[in-house]
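Support request from a user on the community tier.

User writes: "When I paste my C-alpha cells into the form, the page sometimes reloads and wipes my input. The last time it worked, I copied everything first. Here is what I submitted, just in case something in the input itself triggers the reload:"
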C-alpha cells in the first residue's frame, strides 16, 4: 500500500507481518554474529601461550639427543 503526500511523492507503507519478518531476520543475524565473535574470542589465546612449530622441533631434537645419550 502506498500513501500519497501533498507534494506528489509516494510513501510506501508495509504491513505488520513485513516488519515482524524484518525484525526476526535482524535478530537471527545478530545472534549468529554474536556466536561467531564469542567463538573467536574464546579461541583467541595469546601467541605466547600457543605451542609453535619451532618449539615442537626443539623438543623433538631434545628427545632425540636424550635417546642417543642413553644408548651410549
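"...and here is what came back when it finally went through:"
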Amino acid at each position: 500500500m502506498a500513501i500519497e503526500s501533498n507534494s506528489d511523492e509516494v510513501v510506501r507503507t508495509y504491513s505488520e507481518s513485513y516488519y515482524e519478518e524484518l525484525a526476526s531476520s535482524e535478530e537471527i543475524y545478530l545472534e549468529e554474529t554474536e556466536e561467531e565473535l564469542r567463538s573467536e574470542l574464546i579461541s583467541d589465546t595469546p601467541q605466547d601461550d600457543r605451542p609453535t612449530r619451532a618449539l615442537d622441533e626443539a623438543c623433538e631434537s631434545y628427545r632425540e639427543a636424550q635417546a642417543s645419550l642413553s644408548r651410549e
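Agent notes: The reload is a front-end session timeout and is unrelated to the input. The longest strand covers residues 2-4. The mean pLDDT is 78. Escalated to web team.
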